[in-house]
Specification:
By secondary structure, this protein is mainly beta. The protein has strands at 5-13, 19-27.
C-alpha cells in the first residue's frame, strides 16, 4: 500500500478447460 497501482494477471479456467488471463488493476 504505497499508493501505486499494479496490473496483475489473473488466471481463470472455464468449463471447457481453457485457461485465460485477465488483467486486473490493484491498488497497493
Amino acid at each position: 500500500s504505497d499508493g501505486t497501482k499494479d496490473v496483475i494477471q489473473e488466471s481463470h479456467s472455464n468449463d471447457y478447460g481453457v485457461t485465460f488471463s485477465i488483467p486486473k488493476v490493484v491498488s497497493n
